[in-house]
């Protein structure tokens, strides 16, 4: 049972003044069995306060992920803004269009934040190694998903259907809904953030915060992608085996034809040789005419 508010009586007791769905986070653990309006609650000394519910970004990225800052320090996902816009920036240093867009995005990021608007971006790297990731992130003013989180990176790419980079997905920090998957176009059209938080950019088709934006859904998406990859590999393997079998059959067919041809040749040679041995020699006789003197 959760308590919305209490009223202090003294240091050891509190009285319930309202019941609701909100969690109580600023008091000690309370004995609340049989609780009702006006019920006196006894505070158990040294008890642990109730845990805060996970934020939408924690449901999306996980509550144990440490997001890296440019200076080498880090924050938890819970430290992301609870209001405003959070962008997931899929990019890589080896990608020329990314290197062209990143400075423009950084300029817009700094301008919008300097106006007091709640905008945060998380770099999701497609770099080939951690060294390239670190060097590229050093050029960016925002946070980054650790390079080691390859599984989460792949799951996010699958969830938001990332087909190419650079891609910028803009999320409503308060609800977890996807504002738009084409944040690159939004920033290019409005680099000063005059239309921030861009709620009309595509929120109508956005999934609800509870509709799949969680670690379990990400894991399922990753597993499905892995299974599809395995299936494709199996199909390719089967096709390769079929081609090899066909070649072997053709090879056997040619060998069989050669063998039959050689047998035919040997048979003809044997028949010819036999006929030569069976033929009798022709006897020639000559007689001398009577009028010829010898």
Give a nutshell description of this structure.
By secondary structure, the chain is α+β, with helices and mostly antiparallel strands. It is built from 6 helices and 10 strands.
Written description of the protein model:
It is built from 6 helices and 10 strands; from the N terminus they run E-E-E-H-E-E-E-H-E-H-E-H-E-E-H-H. The chain is an alpha+beta fold and 294 residues long. Strands 8-7-6-9-10 form a 5-stranded mixed sheet, covered by helices on one side. It has a 3-stranded antiparallel sheet with strand order 1-2-3, with no helix packed on it.
Helix tally equals 6
Q: Give the overall silhouette.
A: rod-shaped
Unreliably modeled segments: 1-13, 15-38, 203-215
The helical percent reads 25-40%
Radius of gyration: 41 Å
How do the helices and strands follow one another from N- to C-terminus? EEEHEEEHEHEHEEHH
Mean pLDDT across all amino acids = 75
Beta strand count:
10
**Main β-sheet, in a few words?**
5 strands, mixed
- Distance from N terminus to C terminus (CA atoms, Å) equals 151 Å
* Strand order of the biggest β-sheet: 8-7-6-9-10
* Class by SSE composition: alpha+beta
Tell me the fraction of residues in β-strands, as a range: 15-25%
């Amino acid at each position: 049972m959760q308590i919305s508010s209490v009223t202090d009586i003294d240091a050891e007791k509190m009285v319930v003044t309202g019941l609701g769905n909100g969690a109580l986070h600023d008091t000690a653990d309370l004995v609340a069995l049989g609780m009702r309006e006006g019920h006196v609650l006894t505070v158990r000394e040294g008890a642990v306060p109730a845990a805060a519910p996970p934020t939408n970004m924690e449901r999306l990225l996980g509550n144990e992920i440490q997001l890296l800052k440019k200076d080498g320090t880090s924050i938890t996902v819970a430290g992301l803004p609870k209001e405003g816009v959070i962008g997931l920036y899929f990019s890589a240093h080896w990608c020329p269009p990314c290197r062209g867009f990143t400075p423009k995005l950084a300029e817009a990021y700094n301008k919008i934040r300097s106006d007091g608007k709640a905008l945060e971006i998380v770099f999701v790297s497609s770099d080939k190694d951690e060294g390239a990731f670190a060097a590229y992130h050093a050029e960016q003013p925002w946070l980054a998903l650790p390079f080691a989180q390859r599984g989460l990176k792949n799951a996010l790419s699958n969830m938001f259907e990332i087909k190419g980079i650079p891609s910028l997905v803009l999320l409503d920090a308060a609800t977890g809904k996807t504002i738009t998957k084409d944040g690159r176009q939004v920033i290019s059209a409005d680099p000063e953030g005059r239309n921030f938080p861009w709620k009309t950019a595509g929120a109508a088709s956005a999934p609800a915060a509870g509709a799949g934006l969680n670690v379990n859904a990400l894991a399922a998406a990753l597993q499905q992608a892995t299974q599809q990859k395995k299936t494709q590999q199996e199909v390719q393997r089967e096709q390769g085996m079929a081609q090899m079998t066909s070649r072997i059959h053709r090879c056997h067919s040619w060998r069989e034809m050669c063998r039959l041809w050689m047998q035919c040749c040997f048979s003809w040679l044997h028949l010819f040789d036999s006929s030569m041995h069976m033929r009798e020699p022709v006897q020639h006789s000559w007689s001398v005419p009577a009028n010829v003197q010898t």
